[in-house]
């Protein structure tokens, strides 16, 4: 009886491990700024909004990327959830100089004076095709 339990446990473990191998594993995304000015960006998970996120306090959270440089956005294991809860990523690109002028202002003021330069709606297929690299300005 003990041998049957061990065999069942081994089979179940093998099936579980094989199923996990097919899941996309990605711990980071590169944001490449090929423009001649600094940009700031925000990434939202599963949001189809056309405006960027502001917290309950009215503050925004953006990351800066200098001109002609690359930012490695490391969100731990969040990009590995494509098979469960992660369907899309939305990336908002803003003018970095203008954002730096207004970042301490209320969100409505930032939205009024800092235009969104580009919005990316990213799926798993798009990110895999682009080798997990988002390039601004868009190359396609």
Any key phrases for this structure?
three-stranded mixed beta sheet; 140 residues; alpha+beta; four-stranded antiparallel beta sheet
Briefly summarize what is shown.
The chain is an alpha+beta fold. The protein is 29% helix and 29% strand.
Structural features, described:
By secondary structure, the chain is of the alpha+beta class. The protein has one domain (24-136). 29% of the residues lie in helices and 29% in strands. It is built from four helices and seven strands; from the N terminus they run αβββββααβαβ. The protein has helices at residues 2-21, 96-102, 107-113, 124-129, and strands at 28-33, 39-45, 63-65, 69-74, 89-95, 116-122, 133-136. A four-stranded antiparallel beta sheet has the order 3-2-5-6. It has a three-stranded mixed beta sheet with strand order 4-1-7, with no helix packed on it. The longest helix has 20 residues, at 2-21. It is globular and about 70 Å long.
């Amino acid at each position: 009886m003990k041998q049957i339990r061990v065999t069942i446990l081994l089979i179940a473990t093998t099936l579980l491990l094989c199923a996990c191998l097919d899941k996309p594993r990605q711990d980071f995304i590169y944001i490449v700024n090929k423009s001649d000015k600094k940009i700031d960006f925000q990434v939202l998970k599963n949001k189809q909004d056309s405006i960027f996120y502001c917290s309950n306090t009215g503050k925004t959270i953006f990351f800066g990327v200098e001109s002609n440089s690359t930012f490695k956005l490391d969100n731990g294991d969040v990009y590995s959830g494509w098979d469960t809860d992660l369907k899309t990523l939305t990336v908002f690109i803003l003018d970095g100089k203008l954002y730096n002028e207004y970042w301490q202002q209320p969100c409505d003021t930032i939205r009024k004076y800092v235009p969104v330069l580009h919005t990316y709606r990213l799926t798993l297929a798009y990110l895999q095709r682009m080798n997990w690299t988002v390039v601004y300005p868009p190359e396609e």
